[in-house]
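Consortium newsletter contribution from the modelling node. Members have asked for a concrete example of what our holo predictions look like. Here is one, prepared for the EPZ complex that several groups have been discussing at recent meetings.
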Amino acid sequence: MKTPKQFVIRGGRPLHGEVEISGAKNAVVAILPATLLSDEPCIIENVPEISDVDISLRILRELGAKVRYLSPHTYEIDTREVMSYTVPYESARKMRASYYFMGALLGRFGHCRVSMPGGCPLGDRPIDQHLKAFKKLGAIAKVERGMVDITTPESGLQGTQIFFDCVTVGATMNAILAAVKAEGLTVIENAAKEPHIVDLASFLNSMGADIMGAGTDTIKIRGTKYLRGTSYAVIPDQIEAGTYMVAAAATGGNVLVKNVIPKHLESIINVMEKIGVKIEQFDDAVRVSADGPLVKTSIKTRPHPGFPTDMQPQISALLCLAEGTSMIKEGVSEQRFQYVDELRRMGADIQVDGKVAVIEGTGHLTGAPVKACDLRAGAALMIAGLAASGVTTIEDIYHIERGYADMEGKLRALGACIEKKTVCQDAVQHDVIVRQDAV
Ligand code: EPZ
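And here is the predicted structure:
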């Protein structure tokens, strides 16, 4: 059992300087399993140092892949000697993205046994659409004792028409992974359009796959028998970028967010400008500043290109600092307001009714001991702590470390007073000694 750690933040300091965005978590957690489909070694660059990557690489090694660290953020992955198609509960339960090993192993072997996935507690997160896609391709799927067991008839997976009943990122990615070596043409309709889906398709096409239309709601895949090795750099993380943009605005700072694709940030920029944040766009960077008052606004989260659900907690923290009544409607996840109770401990005035949160902006938050309940909730508490007066301690930061590389280092370089501390079992929360020089 790892020693629990917490972030200790002394807020109220505007962030200034530059921050470099890392590779996209939700792209790399699909690209790493996709190396199982390659008939030659692959080199993956711009891999973020986050725990979801550690888990993905561990699963690849457990399957028999050779994973070689070449340099910072760069790995060579050789899956030619992989013989196993089973991903046990112990590995799969730690992240939702473990379900991408289903599509990749099915595409490789025509068989997989993968534990039902874990991941952020965002309400009901079924995988019925994933299984629908596999069955349409000719596979037989059954779920027994928490394991998803999928087999394929002798004839192998056959190209088909897949129409998703709802827009789903995970099932779209898994359908691509399973179909890329299937016999014939597969057409996926009502597909999700997130940048990470385009990145997975680009990665596979760089190996010789034949995928057209990724990023639109109709994706066509012609099965390809042989996929050659490749060198591929993961796209920058649009949600990490959005998180630092909101942190800059919440602290009234001025930050250059580098290594981004501005096109991927359009909906985030649009919302932040409505709130009164100043954003200058460059080829691969955006500069964020907020020296004026923040303005209340109403937002609904939607699948891409709408405002991303993965930015909902972070923008809520910002709206707590705006004057007036704001409203947030969660249009994607089943339940994504668990973080509100923690923000209330910091003085936020938020009422939640089902999928709608009404925020009475108070213009001010105060530091408090809080707990991260999922990845983006943890990011929202970090933003609130940076903006709040006084000291905030965030527990269960392992959630944050699943998707944010070196958040402590990146924020400290922007002038934040933040420290990662080990939670001593007998430490009483308010006795945590906060050294003036560090926090
Ligand atoms: C992916 O989750 C992301 N995770 C999530 O990011 C993100 O919030 C979500 O997409 C939406 O953008 C990864 O990419 C690893 P969905 P996923 O399938 O694939 C319903 C983060 O913070 N649905 O698009 O689980 C589902 O219940 C994480 O980085 C079905 O009904 O999302 C949900 O309401 C959190 N049946 C909606 O669709 C299915 O078979 C969207 O889910 C699949 C999904």
